[in-house]
Amino acid sequence: xxxxxxxxxxxxxxxxxxxxxxxxxxxxxxxxxxxxxxxxxxxxxxxxxxxxxxxxxxxxxxxxxxxxxxxxxxxxxxxxxxxxxxxxxxxxxxxxxxxxxxxxxxxxxxxxxxxxxxxxxxxxxxxxxxxxxxxxxxxxxxxxxxxxxxxxxxxxxxxxxxxxxxxxxxxxxxxxxxxxxxxxxxxxxxxxxxxxxxxxxxxxxxxxxxxxxxxxxxxxxxxxxxxxxxxxxxxxxxxxxx
Length: 242
Description:
The chain is an alpha/beta fold. Helix content is 32%, strand content 21%. It contains eight helices and eleven strands.
């Protein structure tokens, strides 16, 4: 049996397990299983690998994308640059780190954009935000981070004025605000959005978060994280079968 899985905490609503289970059935890929491994602390990974020595690869979600780094035996060039890992291939008892968020986000973003945005705001500063920043840099889209606790060069939410919103035509939510079942949303001044804006939410459940709803109300073009996750999952599968 080829075994794959997802580590993170909590894992109450896992896209990955459902996606891969359906993929294995749809594509008649036999002898494969994808499981959820809820893990509050990354220190539990060693025990998981002992219990499942047949584990060939796993995805990583909140809150382990960055704390995973010291445990890797090798890192892809992207992981080295952004210091965030969300996909591991296990080979000969060694952990090889990759980042498929970058591939998924880049392809999904390009499918959304009809013109080059003047600049972008990245809401949040975690592992997913780093993948987003990598893609924006590659696409030559200037960007700034927005954080509840901003460091040098970052905006706080209270600093987001009409001028800043108007200048930043692309706004990406990388925070968990709005993820089911919590009805929250990033506190940005939505009244300054317009048809020239793009809102991208990495959340996929619900399909239309309050963040996106408020963008739609102002005429903005919006997209959730579902396509990104599909693309990210397929890139993981490619890596596990290298």
